[in-house]
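Memo to structure team: turn this sequence into structure tokens by end of day. - J.P.
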Amino acid sequence: MNPILHLLAPLPNFLAYLGTALGLTVLFSILYTAITPHEEWKMLRKGNISASLAFGGALLGFAIPLASAIAHSVSLLDTVLWGLVALIVQLLAFYGVWLILPRLPRQIEEDHRGVATIAAVFFLSVGLLNAACLVW
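Reply from structure team:
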């Protein structure tokens, strides 16, 4: 077998996992922006840094456990199932922060960067813990 073709043999699996991960990330983005009471995309387009910090933290907080699920999965279906678990946990993290900081949506709209930063750190922390728990 040609050495180059041999090296590219895993390419279909790579593309399947990458496509799945990107699809789950898009799904997460859609669901996250749907559950937040503020208009994420509108604020991002207007340059609201707080919206960027909070959404970026939530997105990374999802991507970290998704990467762990990919790295430790036994199949693509396994990745999807654990990716969905990571997605649910990260969406619940938003509600957790909202309980702790009941004015969070309004403060993000008003571009309070300190609040958005602590929310992003919380989302990232949940993501890291979630990723660690996905290692079996």
